[in-house]
Design a protein that fits this description.
Elements (H helix, E strand, L loop, with lengths): L8 H15 L2 E13 L5 E6 L4 E6 L1 H4 L10 E12 L4 E14 L1 H16 L16 E6 L4 H13 L4 E6 L7 H13 L1 H4 L6 E6 L13 H9 L4 E5 L7 H5 L2 E2 L3 H8 L3 H35 L3 H91 L1 H5 L5 E4 L16 E5 L4 E5 L5 H9 L1
Parallel strand pairs: 3-5, 6-7, 6-8, 8-9, 9-10
Antiparallel strand pairs: 1-2, 1-4, 2-3, 4-5, 11-12, 12-13
Helix pairs in contact: 4-9, 5-7, 10-11
Amino acid sequence: MSENEPCSVTQLLARLKYAVECDVGEAMVVGEIGSCKVAGSGHVYFTLKDATAQLACVFYRYQAASCRVHLIEGLRVELVGRATVWEGRGTLQFVVERVREAGVGSLQQQFEEMKRRLEAEGLFSASRKRTLPRYPESIGIITSVTGAVIQDMRHRLEQRAPWVQVYLLPVQVQGKGAEHGLARAVQMWSESERFGLPPVDFVILARGGGSLEDLWCFNEEVLARAIAASHVPVVSAVGHETDFTIADFVADLRAPTPTAAIELTTPDSAALLETLDSKALTLRKQMTRALETARLRLLVLERGKLRHPQELLEPFMQRLDVLHEEMGNCCNARLQAAAHQLALHSARLQVGRLRSALEHANERLQTALRALRVGTRARTDQWKACLRVHEERLAAASPLHVLKRGFALVRTEDGALLRRAKDAPAGTKLHISLSEGELTARTEVQSEHATHARRAK
């Protein structure tokens, strides 16, 4: 191809792949595992990095199945494989063949060292952690203004405790220098009056899941000390259930996920309404009994013809009737409002249950489809193996297999197999089948002398 002649993307990537595989070929590389993911096919995709660069790697299932090293983020490994270019995305890729553990990665080592040091200072002590209010009135959230985390938390809060006031202080939750913004946000809410922020009952530090590098700002010492010095309780809700950061250990409460932080720190409005309804009913019964007791006492005074005490009590009797009527109206209004709130939350709950049921049904469908594919593939492989066995048996029993060893099949003109010479008198037309091709022949007359001579031999 001429240098001035344009080539297609496929052609260029093919040339690049050829150049990389020829010039680099097999190689051994050592580094620290970054993000790591196991696909549904069983192949493992991860990045290998050092202080200044990273490399995309793939460990195919048929080789990963026999590997005894459990690949996790932060693990330092030594890889043997080959460099290539994946034409599907035009990316450089290292195809791993063997893995050997080389020690703990630098980030993981930094994490463990800082954890030991801060724990020795008492920052993780349970005695310094504060209890959160059972019925909070206001909550401060420190997280990114973009993304699904703040939306998920807001929706969950509307379902559980819609009366709670929520204030968002947007910050950067990933990248270089993000820890200083997070520490500054914690300090601002710790001194809310000084910085002009509304007072809150506690602060939630939230972020979605990610790799060790993505969550590293929550492992920095400046943020840990800001949480420890905060006058307002801090809830750490960073990553997924399996992700742990230094902020989790210093905070007053650790939630496995951001939405779980809402569930752990706020009451369930449906349960509260049920409790209030029960208490309202009990109070109404007690008030009714008290009113009946008062009426009975008044009747006793009337029948006893105690004129002067009766005259003193008459204004209070009327006042008691008015209070009874007002109490009934108040209870009815409260019950109607509670019923309205209950109907509203019940409707929201039904929508949530339907969505959850659809998600569970979809998961079961996907699981059934995967099982069907695996079963179909296994059954197909089984029948293919049986077919190969029968093919081998058929080939072994085939007459053609015998013909290849130098034998022949002799048939008369009517197609019958010829087994004895006396069945073919002189002049009989014969068809002879060999391993390759067929012949036609006729028998000849043999002299009696020649026949005796051959018998003598």
